[in-house]
Amino acid sequence: MKVLFLDSVHEILQQELEASGFECDHDYSSSYADIKSKIAAYDGIVIRSRIPIDRGLLTAGMLKFVARSGAGLENIDLTAAEELGTRIFSSPEGNMDAVAEHAMGMLLMLMNHLKRADAEVRAGVWRRAENRGTEVKGKTVGIIGYGYMGSAFAERLSGFGCKIIAHDKYKHGFGNAKVEEVTKAELLERSDIISVHLPLSEETHHYIDHSFILAAGKPFILINTARGLHVDIAALLDGLESRKVIGACLDVFAFEKSSFEAIETQQTSIFEQLVSREDVILSPHIAGWTHESYVKLSSFLAQKICSVFGNVKG
């Protein structure tokens, strides 16, 4: 079987595939049209987010599988893949720990004013009372989406002495001694902190909008490490101004290119408003991108591909 890598991933994936008899090629720069013209020569492709895997590309070949290094599948036409019998592999297990730890770190940074305090001390400013922090203990944390990422975040939170509640429209019966399963309305009413862990779809586009923020029972902190388009930034800025939103931790942005490798409109007014705020913590879509997750994302893909189309040796 021949596999075409369209994005760079950790070398362990190629090593494991070749050990099981796969032939691997690479093309990290060709256009969509060029890839489409030669896709028929391959049985599978490995991607991150560089090009869309739409119906046109899928029907141009007879792909047995598409392997996505990561969790999000919004760049793949899943309906067409199912109709064509193309298997879809992803590896959310590979970066769920990274996402959970990053979300926890951003939250602690915001609640303890660590970004500001660090900058002030470096500048010779010593303000203790003004940088007094707020504890996670005793707060109610609402998790929206209780898959790999949401459950991993709940696990990290469980040692902080907070109340953890979670809502998942498509998953039920997951409540346990650590996490209470609730409706969306209950989560909005009770949460001091809300963390979003949803796939991107038409349904979840601007999931956090004006109506969501207005429906919250009390001022809350927002965490988004999933997809930038979950949050209507204009609504978030209004919420921050009105103090309905106390602060925000954002690893992802609507301004990102589809490949997530750059910001498209850095100079827009709305972006400038966002980055000027001290009550917002930002990072460049790296929550799931640790040194360890880079290896695990590929390792889990190798296991899944070879469990269907061969056996990983060793």
The CATH C-level name of the largest domain is Alpha Beta
CATH superfamily annotation of the largest domain: NAD(P)-binding Rossmann-like Domain
Secondary-structure-based class equals alpha/beta
Taken as a percent bin, the fraction of beta residues is: 15-25%
H/E element string?
EHEHEHEHEHHEHEEHEHEHEHEH
Radius of gyration: 21 Å
Shape: elongated
Q: How far from one another are the termini?
A: 20 Å
- Proportion in helices: 25-40%
Q: Record the strand order, biggest sheet.
A: 8-7-6-9-10-11-12
Query: What is the tally of helical segments?
Result: 12
As for the CATH topology of the largest domain, it is Rossmann fold
The mean pLDDT is: 94
How would you sum up this structure, described in words?
This protein is of the alpha/beta class and 314 residues long. It folds into two domains: 2-94 and 292-309, Rossmann fold, CATH 3.40.50.720; 96-282, NAD(P)-binding Rossmann-like Domain (Rossmann fold). Helices cover 36% and strands 16% of the residues. It is built from twelve helices and twelve strands. It has helices at 11-19, 32-38, 55-59, 78-84, 96-111, 114-122, 148-157, 184-190, 210-215, 233-242, 269-275, 291-309; strands at 2-5, 23-26, 44-47, 65-68, 87-90, 140-144, 163-167, 179-181, 193-196, 220-224, 245-250, 280-282. The strands form two sheets. The chain has a seven-stranded parallel beta sheet with strand order 8-7-6-9-10-11-12, with helices on both faces. A five-stranded parallel beta sheet has the order 2-1-3-4-5, with helices on both faces. Strand 3, helix 3 (55-59) and strand 4 (65-68) form a beta-alpha-beta unit. The longest helix is centred in the last third of the chain and has 19 residues, at 291-309. The protein is elongated. The mean pLDDT is 94.
